[in-house]
Structure formats: structure tokens, C-alpha cells
């Protein structure tokens, strides 16, 4: 969990009162589904080990009382240079061996690292923002297969060789494999309503910047 704290004026509180902004994982909090759509008010956090872990993270970051304006950012898969999810994917995709994971039908909520940092900064600086924000791109209704095709296109490589679910389970273990093989359609409804302007709302542009 990433957490940052800073004194900042709030709309109805003295400027000396603090605020707290923390980040957790949206793909772990919301229950995997091929049909459901989740926004910041949707239930979750109570169906498996990782969802319960996120719930505990958020509870640990929460300060008692109303004297602190608190914001939780639930992030999707973060796309950035030099590591993270892309770091593990680049070699096989550059070799033309990339493709969808499992069926490829599962949703793949993502966000460019620049926008995740931007949302955290927005939460700190905008005194009207509080509660949960989904840190995912507006186009995060992307499926895993669509993500694979877009990454292949950004690299100028084909991306049609699927990674079977049995291999994923053998490599990552049953619980971690669930996060890759099952997904959620997560939308940043409250994030957009708060006034945040995305730098990378579309997947193609985000991936081209990351792999450039």
C-alpha cells in the first residue's frame, strides 16, 4: 500500500487539519465477473484472500474521527516503464510470442503510471475530494485479449499465442493466477466526477508511451 500525508486546506475544515491518501488494488477488491460493472460505490473486499487483504489495508490506512479528509485510490494494473506488469510482458511480446492470458475474455482494468500519480496528487490538492476513487483509465473496460492486441501493435509484433490457464496456475499458484485469469469491469465514475483530467485515457497511446 502506498500512502502519503500532507497538511492541506479542506472545504469545511481548518487548513491545519491533515489529510490522508492511500492506494490499494481495484482488481483485488472487486469480485471477478464477465458481466458486472463496478464503480466506487460497489460492494467488494470480502470474497477471497486478496480481497480481504485489500479491506484490511484500507482499514489500516483509515484514521478515526472526522478531523482528517481521507481518500482511498483503488488502482488497476499500472502501466509504466522499467518494471511492473509491462516489465514481465515485454520480452515474449517483443519476440512475437505474446497473446491473451487464458480465455482473454476477462476484463483488464489498467492505468498509466502518470495518471495514477496524477490522481493521487489531485486527491491531495483538491479539497472537495474524499472517499474512494477508482484509479483506472476510462477505457479500462478493455479485455485481456484486447490488451494483448494493443501491446503487440505498440511493439509492431503479432500477439495471438495464448498463455493457457493451466500454465498460469502452475507458474503463479492458484490464488495469484485468479487475478490474471479473471477480471472486473471497473469504471472511474467518481474519479471523473471529481474533475480529474486523464493524460492517457486510451490504451493505445498509453502503451506507445510506455514502450517508446
Automatic annotation (TrEMBL):
Pfam families: DUF1731. InterPro entries: DUF1731, NAD(P)-bd_dom_sf. Residues 164-209 form the DUF1731 domain. This is Short chain dehydrogenase/reductase family 39U member 1. It comes from Equus asinus (Donkey). The gene is SDR39U1.
Amino acid at each position: 500500500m502506498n500512502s502519503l500525508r500532507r497538511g492541506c486546506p479542506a472545504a469545511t475544515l481548518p487548513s491545519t487539519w491533515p489529510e490522508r491518501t492511500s492506494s490499494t488494488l481495484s482488481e483485488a477488491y472487486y469480485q471477478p465477473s464477465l458481466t458486472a460493472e463496478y464503480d466506487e460505490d460497489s460492494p467488494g473486499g470480502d470474497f477471497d484472500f486478496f480481497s480481504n487483504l485489500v479491506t484490511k489495508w484500507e482499514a489500516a490506512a483509515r484514521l478515526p474521527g472526522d478531523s482528517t479528509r481521507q481518500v482511498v485510490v483503488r488502482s488497476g494494473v499500472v502501466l509504466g516503464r522499467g518494471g511492473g506488469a509491462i516489465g514481465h510482458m515485454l520480452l515474449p511480446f517483443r519476440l512475437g510470442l505474446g497473446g491473451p492470458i487464458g480465455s482473454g475474455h476477462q476484463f483488464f482494468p489498467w492505468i498509466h503510471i502518470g495518471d495514477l500519480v496524477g490522481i493521487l496528487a489531485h486527491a491531495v490538492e483538491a479539497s472537495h475530494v474524499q472517499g474512494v476513487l477508482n484509479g483506472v483509465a476510462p477505457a479500462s473496460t478493455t479485455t485481456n485479449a484486447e490488451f494483448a492486441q494493443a501491446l503487440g501493435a505498440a511493439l509492431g509484433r503479432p500477439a495471438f499465442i495464448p498463455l493457457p490457464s493451466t500454465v498460469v496456475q502452475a507458474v503463479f499458484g492458484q490464488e495469484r493466477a485468479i487475478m490474471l485469469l479473471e477480471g472486473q469491469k471497473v469504471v472511474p465514475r467518481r474519479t471523473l466526477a471529481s474533475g480529474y483530467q486523464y493524460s492517457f485515457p486510451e490504451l493505445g497511446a498509453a502503451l506507445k508511451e510506455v514502450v517508446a
